[in-house]
Amino acid sequence: MKTISIFIPVYNEIAILEKNTRFLYQYLQELDVPFEIIIGDNGSTDGTEAAGRDLANRLPELRFFHLPHKGVGSAFKQGVKMARGDVVISLDMDLSIDLAFVERAAALAAEYDIVIGSKKMGDQTRSLVRIVGSGLYLLCAKLLLNLPFDDYSIAAKAYRRNVAMAYLDRVNFGTSYVLEMVYLARRAGYKVTAIPVSCHDLRPSKFNLINEAVYRFYNLFIFWAKSRHIPR
User: Fold this and answer.
1) pTM, full prediction
2) Domains: count for the chain
3) pLDDT, tens digit, for every residue of 105-156?
4) Dihedral, CA of residue 96, residue 214, residue 135 and residue 156, to nearest 10
């Protein structure tokens, strides 16, 4: 199996950083595949940076970086550039997605360029507000871009590193990069698939949900308007 790079963006995660990183670390060791974990801190103010650097000094397969400003897209770009693995798998620090996705996605990367972990195909325990909001976004994405998939959140996504690198210039500071990379890669002939995942996430979001909704819908419509003029 190819080497995998697990990328986790973090923002003010001091409360769960060490516990969840060690849990993930042990899980990956038991898979018996070559791996590294890259944690990208984007703008934390609660001690996450110091704790992350200390943890990286104690775990040999862990690397940590800090960006001064909040922006998960910016962190993703840096993480992909740093990655040594052939496959980059993005997770959330709360590990709200069933970790079985990691093993399945790593295996599928032998055939597919992008693997989408879909909460809608699997099962999810999330607030009604988040389920309804994401449902409206997915409906608009299908109508505007004719995309058949139904999850463009940042977690539970796997990319062949060379494919992610090819589209890094399309990644801005926020979360819209997932949909745009999937669309562009699929249009260019790369192979994309989706698999069901289980998600249990009832903690308050790290994003302001109203601001995030405005950002994502705005970027979706702007991308749709420009997509017809993007060279194949």
Assistant:
1) 0.92
2) 1
3) 999 999 999 999 999 898 888 878 888 888 899 999 999 999 999 999 999 9
4) -30
Query: Is 232 among the domain residues?
Result: no
- Distance, first Cα to last Cα, the chain: 31
Burial class (CB in 10 A: 0-12, 13-18, 19+), 119: buried
What range defines the domain where residue 179 resides?
4-227
Q: Compute the Cα dihedral for 140, 142, 144, 147 and give only its sign.
A: positive
Q: What is the CATH number of the domain that holds 144?
A: 3.90.550.10
Q: Which two tokens stand for residue 144?
A: 């505007």
Give 78-138 as a 3 state SS string. Answer: HHHHHCCCCEEEECCCCCCECCHHHHHHHHHCCCCCEEEEEEEEEEEECCHHHHHHHHHHH
- What is the pLDDT at residue 207? 65
